[in-house]
Amino acid sequence: MTELFQQGSLLQPETLEDWTPEVVTRVIAETLETWGFADYGARVRWCWNPRLRTTIGRAIFEDHLVELNPHLLARHPGEIRGVLIHELAHLVVVEHFGFRESPHGPRWKALMRAAGESTRATHQLDVGNLRRRRKNAQPRPHRSRQAQTLSRLEAWWRRLSQRGW
Ligand SMILES: [Zn+2]
Question: Mean pLDDT of successive 10-residue segments in the chain (165 residues)?
Fold first, then answer.
């Protein structure tokens, strides 16, 4: 990775293994700097969370923590940067503007654009066998994209309300 840094800018890492802690940390720092929130870098943490199944990444506000799904992102390493920045943007919005802002609202979108990333809120990746296996598995009703977006928002607001919001 050292060679990459010596070239002055971070190249696109191509596999999960390329995303070493140094690279992830560097992308976080560069992105925060782009946004003018460099100081926040000292508080932001991140980790791979192998317990995540179909959630590709999430932001834990109270811990200033970004969690990334190693199973899903190993299959789609090209998404790592986008997911990392997506969750980082959530942390920054909440840190600086509080919970008044809607999760994927204008401030979040502005950060994503400034970082050169997509403003779509849900992923469309094949989660195949990553779904939690259930005892007495029943066939699952097909969920539309809209339903997935809704349940993601619901999960978001549930998390907020658990924090007393
Ligand atoms: Zn989001």
Answer: 46 84 96 97 97 94 96 93 96 93 93 94 74 58 54 59 38
How far is CA 107 from its chain centroid?
A: 16
Clarify whether 101 is annotated catalytic: no
Which domains, from first to last, does the chain contain? 2-122 (3.30.2010.10)
2 Cα: distance to centroid of ligand 1 (angstroms): 31
CB burial of residue 90 (10 Å; 0-12, 13-18, 19+): buried
Find the 35 Cα to ligand 1 centroid distance in Å. Answer: 17
Q: How many whole angstroms separate alpha carbon 140 and alpha carbon 151?
A: 15
d(CA 71, CA 44): 23
